[in-house]
Amino acid sequence: MTEKEQFIANFKARTKKFAVDIIKFCNSLKTCKASAVVTYQLVKSATSVGANYRAACRARSEKEFYSKICIVVEEADESLYWLEVIEASELAEDIKELKRLLPESEEILKVVGKTKDTLSKKTRIKNENYLWRVVDIQTYKP
Predict the structure, then answer these.
(1) Residue 81 lies in a domain
(2) How many domains does the chain have?
(3) Residue segments in the chain with a per-residue pLDDT below the cut of 50
(4) Which residue range is the domain that position 36 belongs to?
(5) What is the pLDDT of residue 137?
């Protein structure tokens, strides 16, 4: 297994563990109307991180991969947001687990954010090169 394949396998496992840990954490929140709404939103976004990362890994093209990674970034950011809301509203019974999940969420967001940024720069360079070729063809005079 190559280093890249090992990273992908590890990150798939990490995002799945994150989803499972979030589900378990949400079951420990204080019981109130607000926690039901926050739990629903957090579980949706956290499970979507892993599911869309897996989908990205099966992408049939670079454009499809980029599209899925953009979704993963959005969902990871949303998960971090809901964890911050839980912290600010003091809904967590298990403060230790919240303090563990916050940096994990940030780290996942950094990894996929960096991937998105790298692909974005790569795509921009390709598009710029394409545009220059189009301009060269249009202005070419034999």
Answers:
(1) yes
(2) 1
(3) 130-132, 134-138, 140
(4) 3-114
(5) 47
